[in-house]
Structure formats: C-alpha cells, structure tokens
Amino acid sequence: MANLLSAALRTVALVLPAHAQGATWIVDANNGPGTHFTSLSAAVFTSAPGDLLLVRSGNYQPVFLDRPLFIVADSGAIVTGSGGYGPGFMVGAMPAGSTTAIVGLTLAATSLTHESLRVMAGPGTVILDRIHSTEYSTLLYSDDVRCSRCEFDRGLTTNVSTAALERCRIGPHPWDIDPASLRATGCYLRLERCVVRGRDPQPYFGTTLPATPAIELSATTLVLGDDGSGAIAAGAVGPAAAIVGSGVVEVDPHVTLLPSGGAMSTQGVSVTARVRPSLAVDAGPPGGAVALDLFGPNGDGYLEAVGIAVPPTVSPAVADRLWLQPMLLWSIGTFGPSGRATAQVPLPNLPIIVGVSFTWQAAAFGAVSGLAVSNPVSYVHPAN
After folding, report:
1. Which run of H or E residues covers position 122?
2. Positive or negative, the Cα torsion across 225, 229, 235, 240?
C-alpha cells in the first residue's frame, strides 16, 4: 500500500474537522462526577445542533431526536422503558446538509408496536454505528442512512429510503410472523459483509410458521458486496429463496446466497453480477488507530479516500453512488493474491477527536473490476 501523506500531515488532517464541533455534554443516569444530565431525553432537548453527547453506562428512557447531534455511548448504555404508541428511539426529520450520529447504544425500549428504532430523517445524513436494536427497526423516507456493525434482532423494514449497511446482522426472531428479516419498498440499499437470515420454521398457536426468505423487496435496488464473511440465508428446511420480490439485485461473486429446501437463490427479482471492492473500517479512540480492510480482485489497482459524509450522488463515470466529499486521497496500490489491502492509521492522543466523523470510500480499477467503487463506511470516533 502506497501512502501519499506524511504521518504529521495525516494527524493534522484527522484533527482539523473537530474544530467545527459544538459543545460537549456528559449524560450519566447514575449522576457520576462531571455529569451535566441524568436524562438522555433532557440532554437532547437542551442541546444545540452539532453538540456532542457522551452517554455513560446506565438505563435511559425513550428518546425523540429532533435535531442533528452526535451521541456517543459507552458500553452498557441502554434505552429502556415503554415508548407507548411510538418507538423507543426515534430520529425525526433532519435538515439537508446536516449529519446526525448515534454510536454504541442498545435500544431495548418497547412500545405497543414492539418498535425500538425508527428513523425518519428526510434529507439529513444519519450514521448508526454499533447500535443494537432488540425490537423492530424501521427506516422511513430517509435519503441517507449509514449503518456500521449494527444488530437488528427483529429485522429491519425500509421504505422510500437510501441506506448503506456494512457488517450488520439482521434477524431472525423466532416468533415473528413477518415474511422476511429485511423488507424494502421503493429503496436503494447497499449491503456489505452483512449477515441476513430468515426465520426457521416455528410452532405458533397450534400451527407452524414456515421458513422465510432473508430479504423481501418491492421496487427496490439492492447492491450486495462481500469478502466471504457475510451471508444472505433463508430459514432452514424451507423451501424458501434467499431473496424474493421485485426489483434489481446486483451481486458480487463473493456474496453467499443460501436458499433452503431446494428453492432457487432468488425469486421474482432481476439479478446481475458485478465485481466491486469491499471496504471495512474500524475507528479507534484517541491514541488508538483506524483499521482499514479493503478487499478486491488480485492484480487490480485501488485507491482509498477519506472525507466527510455528503448525500449519495450517482457518478456517471463509475455508474454508482459516491457517498463522501473527499478531503484526502489516502492511498493507492495493487491488490495481491490475498485480495486484501490492510493498514493501521495511528491517531493522536487528543480528546478533541472524540465525536469527530469521517467517511471512507475506495475504488478499484483493472481487468476484473473495470472501474468500480466500494461501499461507504462512516463512523464517529469513540471515547474509549
């Protein structure tokens, strides 16, 4: 991997965006030293757009997030309680050009509809990083949602939305009567290294619920990429296809589609094959590192860029979406026999980088890839 910048210049580049950050508030349900708020909902209501909320371990009541904030939670921070008729955690409409990030929360609040997460962000960008949603999760009328390493125990429903998910787990819940773990209507979705599993047959009030597909689409474009670590799997026994419905599915050769019971891999959708690079990025705390893992065809060239999140825009040059405004061309190289290009980027031990958000995206070029771009990865630097 050929790095294009000196270590000193890289450090400056990583820290500069932090200067645009708003105030920082400590949220601690246990009212420990330095606490500004014991209620996450009260902290949201009081904060100004762009503020950073550092949420300590503890139990918090349901939240309605109505302004762009950066919420970074420690392990053990859980939103519990009842949301009544609403979801336990709801993200409302965000203004165009804004970025909202929610990192590290477990969303276990229940409602009469068993919905723990609903995102209705409109034109704003929403980053969900290491979110664990234990009930139903929904994306509605959202132009730009990015999920990294999230878990959606009872599945994910998306309607009229554009979203990119990487290394996420979706379903299955054994008692759900829904037809699939991921359901999408009128969407553009990009899934990278994800595990999506349909429900196995289950007894249900004197009958047996049949196995379900992993994914059900309606008038949706689904782009699937992988490095061999993910899987799109129907429920066991079957017969059930891995993907059903209507729309277009673009599949990288490394994606694993697992139907059951002798069913076809897909049913009803139009399937095309296309080779794309696959990107995973893990952000570290101050003094840690950013870990890059890019996967692509042996012998093809690649480049990696880092920048800030902007609404995904179709680039005619690559016939795909670009999800960032580049700040730096980070590296250029050639994939070797393993197909992997990895790196560790050291971070300065400066608290100011906590809550700073970056987006990475890569491109591959050569005999196998032609010219193709990877999935985006957006994240917020954690405190620890």
Report:
1. strand 122-129
2. positive
Q: Give residue-wise pLDDT tens across range 334-368.
A: 999 999 999 998 988 888 889 899 999 999 999 99
Beta-carbon contacts of 44 under 8 Å, excluding residues fewer than 6 positions away, are 53, 63, 64, 65, 66, 67, 69, 71
Instruction: Give the contacts of 365 (CB within 8 A, at least 6 positions apart).
Output: 300, 301, 302, 371, 372
Rg (CA), the chain: 21
Q: What is the CATH number of domain 286-376?
A: 2.20.130
Matching residue, tokens 């990119």? 164
Lowest mean pLDDT across 34-48, 95-109, 110-124, 138-152: 110-124
- C-alpha 330/C-alpha 342 separation (Å) is 12
What pTM value is reported for the model? 0.94
- Tally of CB atoms within 10 A around 237: 12
DSSP string, 226-287: -SSS-EEEPPSSS-B-SEEEEEEEEE-TT--EE-BTT--SEESSEEEE----EEEEE---TT
The full set of domain ranges for the chain reads 155-274, 286-376
